[in-house]
Amino acid sequence: MGEIEKEVELKMKLEESVKSFKFRAPQENFTIQDFDMGKIYGVGSYSKVVRAKKKDTGKVYALKIMDKKFITKENKTAYVKLERIVLDQLTHPGIVQLHFTFQDTFSLYMALESCEGGELFDQITRKGRLPEDEARFYAAEVIDALEYIHNMGLIHRDIKPENLLLTSDGHIKIADFGSVKPMQDSRITVLPNAASDDKACTFVGTAAYVPPEVLNSSPATIGNDLWALGCTLFQMLSGTSPFKDASEWLIFQRIIARDVRFPDYFSDHAKDLIDKLLDIDPAKRPGAGRDGYDSLKNHPFFKGINWRDIRSKSPPRLVLEKGHTASRSSGGDDTPDSSWNPAHIGDGTGTGNSGSDVSSSSDAGNITKLASIDSFDSKWQQFLEPGESILMISMVKKLQKLSSKKVQLILTNKPKLIYVDPSKLAGKGTMIWSDDPNDLSIQVTSPSNFKIVLPKKVMTFEDPKQRAYQWKKAIETLQNR
Ligand SMILES: Nc1ncnc2c1ncn2[C@@H]1O[C@H](COP(=O)(O)OP(=O)(O)OP(=O)(O)O)[C@@H](O)[C@H]1O
Known about the structure:
Elements: H1 3-20, E1 35-43, E2 48-54, E3 60-67, H2 68-73, H3 77-88, E4 98-103, E5 107-113, E6 118-119, H4 120-127, H5 132-151, E7 154-155, E8 164-166, E9 172-174, E10 181-182, H6 212-215, H7 222-238, H8 248-256, H9 268-277, H10 294-297, H11 363-376, E11 390-399, E12 404-412, E13 416-421, E14 426-431, E15 441-444, E16 449-453, E17 458-462, H12 468-479
Antiparallel strand pairs: 1-2, 2-3, 3-5, 4-5, 6-8, 7-10, 8-9, 11-12, 11-17, 12-13, 13-14, 15-16, 16-17
Bound molecules: adenosine-5'-triphosphate.
């Protein structure tokens, strides 16, 4: 058979497999008018998730809305398809369920099971840190769902407290399968065109939870999720992730050096488990070895957990947002969020990736999220040379005697320190880099204010996100690299 015939035959086979594939969660003909829109649950890098009540049935969903133009422009189509097809085939009480999908001219919609209890991340932030019993409860529910995911031949690749959602009564549901990777022997059917490899990406996931082997470009394994589980457990018990720093680049240095320090108040069992999950060798992490999940479940930290009936235990009490009187469990919230503008749907602006001032829920989260969103935000690429990448970026105010101007301050790995007019997208200045603190230094005058001292001038900045110390640390670390 000639090359052309072979290609045609292959194409026909693929088309056949697409035709014969039947989604469990149906592709409906609904429109957005069929729903009463409530509050915005959150904004992802290419989606917006909104609480939506179906008018005829009264059923509530978390509607994940994705702008088609943005997804195509950012080459995310394959990831969206993969998330859809993977979620369609997963059924587990610890995983957010996909009910149906629909689309209109501008947007794709995924109707997900609504998790009214919010993110585990917010529980950690509101409580400061979690008592060990609560952390054990959540970790056990995550492990139960993760074992199922791994048994299905999938690697989630973005396990972190922001992607662990809570039901109204406080049970865990793993969400966000946008980075999922099917293993070779996966039991999941993956249609052609869904992302089955990620050559185009440097890494997926979130900086603070990325294991060292991923930074060294090793292939993905279930060990990646077990490392992230270790980071998540550390964060539950301490309030912050183990590898915290001012920029992605600094976080990566810590991860590669496996620079973990356990607070004194961690129990010996907690320390031992996290230490093992954060093993440099992914195959040695409990859960990744020959005995499967047994070594993880039988770890003394989980003594007393009944793995066969994990979801029957009462969950920890949820702490609500300040000012929230009604419990989320008493029927949720149908009041539209003040920031919710229905015109956002499908108009190409609803993706939340418009600049650096994307709000996120914590300091550490902020840095990671800002850095990852901004450094992938193509609009700053024009200020970089090939191979140059952004280490830290902030929308700051450049203060002058009588006025102030908003600028985007950008630090790159070159190293290069520049500031850009964000509205005109025009370079406004470059601070000549020097490793010598006599020629380039940074003085912090308050958590939001800092001065960059150059041989012939001093420039004063205000960072509304209070990252003055992080700017200092990033610049000084680069000078001492
Ligand atoms: N089923 C759900 N129920 C309630 N809230 C949800 C649900 N799914 C997502 N959310 C909220 O919406 C936010 C955005 O979700 P989404 O999956 O689009 O993005 P993300 O997890 O931030 O992803 P990305 O890593 O792509 O930026 C989440 O952080 C979460 O708080």
